């Protein structure tokens, strides 16, 4: 169980996160939604250790994560697909995925077994193994980014805006992968601008605004809460509206 209690954090003078409480139970998919600048990505950065929290705590089970370096958080089983592109375009798909196994690189057998398991789960990795990542489409790159995270068989997978910039077909592929990972027992915390998609994939929803959690509940309860209409006029997210 991941637990954030009363977390405050920021980048400069003021606090971006202003007392965030959040939990993710094993086997669940939690989706954080909220307007631009609400602090969604900042929550993920605090969990993965990229940003220190100023007050409050972050724990995985009995283990405190706040104050740990990102490499320690990774070693404890939390891995993140970041919001911006994260693959090395000049390296092959295989090399990019195997980088995800950096922590287990000395155990060649384990590395090979994990890579084979990832190829089985995401056949694209096997079929494009020798191609440069830079030659993949946006949707294919997203799959490979997720594949890389799976090399560590994470206890918790953090996904920041997995649908960002994808065409409908790629989106369906990535959504299908997230669903199948959850069916396989992977616990996920995702941030999604596409509210309908995100809450459709999730078991639990969290609505953030202005660095605070405004609503939490089952994904269905959050989706149907009348307050959502106030945040997302007409049931369509502000960003979706902007993008037309
Ligand atoms: N590296 C940074 N340095 C300074 N301020 C930052 C930095 N990253 C984010 N912020 C600020 O923190 C606030 C929250 O940003 P965050 O990226 O967490 O929002 P978000 O909810 O993920 O938004 P988006 O939907 O646009 O991705 C914003 O006001 C943003 O400008
Ligand atoms: Mg963000």
Task: Please explain how this structure is put together.
InterPro entries: AAA+_ATPase, ABC_transporter-like_ATP-bd, ABC_transporter-like_CS, BCAA_Transport_ATP-bd_LivF, P-loop_NTPase. The chain is α/β, with parallel strands linked by helices and 244 residues long. The protein has one domain: P-loop containing nucleotide triphosphate hydrolases (Rossmann fold, 3-Layer(aba) Sandwich). 39% of the residues lie in helices and 23% in strands. The chain contains eleven helices and ten strands. It has helices at 40-48, 70-75, 93-99, 108-121, 123-127, 138-150, 168-183, 195-201, 219-224, 226-231, 238-243; strands at residues 2-9, 17-24, 29-33, 55-60, 63-64, 78-81, 156-160, 187-191, 204-209, 212-218. The strands form two sheets. Strands 6-7-8-3-9-10 form a six-stranded mixed β-sheet, sandwiched between helices. The chain has a four-stranded antiparallel β-sheet with strand order 2-1-4-5. Helix 7 links the parallel strand 7 and strand 8 (187-191). Helix 3 (93-99) packs parallel to helix 6 (138-150) and helix 6 (138-150) runs parallel beside helix 7 (168-183). The longest helix is centred in the last third of the chain and has 16 residues, at 168-183. Bound molecules: adenosine-5'-triphosphate and magnesium ion.
What's the topology here?
Elements: E1 2-9, E2 17-24, E3 29-33, H1 40-48, E4 55-60, E5 63-64, H2 70-75, E6 78-81, H3 93-99, H4 108-121, H5 123-127, H6 138-150, E7 156-160, H7 168-183, E8 187-191, H8 195-201, E9 204-209, E10 212-218, H9 219-224, H10 226-231, H11 238-243
Parallel strand pairs: 3-8, 3-9, 6-7, 7-8
Antiparallel strand pairs: 1-2, 1-4, 4-5, 9-10
This protein binds adenosine-5'-triphosphate (ATP) and magnesium ion.
């Amino acid at each position: 169980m991941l637990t954030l209690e009363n977390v405050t954090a920021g980048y400069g003078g003021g606090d971006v996160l202003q007392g965030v409480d959040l939990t993710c139970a094993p086997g669940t998919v939690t989706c954080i939604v909220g307007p631009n600048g609400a602090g969604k990505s900042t929550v993920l950065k605090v969990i993965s250790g990229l940003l220190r929290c100023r007050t409050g705590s972050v724990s995985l089970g009995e283990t405190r994560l706040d104050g740990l370096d990102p490499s320690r958080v990774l070693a404890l089983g939390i891995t993140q697909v970041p919001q911006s592109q994260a693959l090395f375009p000049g390296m092959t798909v295989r090399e990019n995925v195997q980088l995800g196994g950096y922590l287990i690189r000395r155990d060649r057998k384990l590395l090979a077994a994990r890579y084979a398991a990832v190829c089985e789960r995401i056949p694209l990795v096997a079929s494009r193994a020798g191609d440069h990542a830079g030659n993949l489409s946006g949707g294919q790159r997203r799959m490979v980014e997720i594949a890389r995270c799976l090399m560590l068989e994470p206890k918790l997978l953090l996904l920041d805006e997995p649908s960002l910039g994808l065409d409908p077909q790629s989106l369906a592929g990535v959504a299908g992968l997230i669903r199948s990972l959850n069916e396989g027992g992977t616990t996920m915390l995702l941030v999604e601008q596409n509210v309908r998609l995100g809450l459709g994939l999730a078991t639990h929803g969290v609505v953030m605004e202005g660095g605070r959690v405004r609503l939490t509940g089952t994904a269905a309860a959050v989706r149907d809460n009348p307050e959502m209409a106030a945040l997302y006029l007409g049931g369509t997210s502000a960003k979706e509206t902007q993008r037309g």
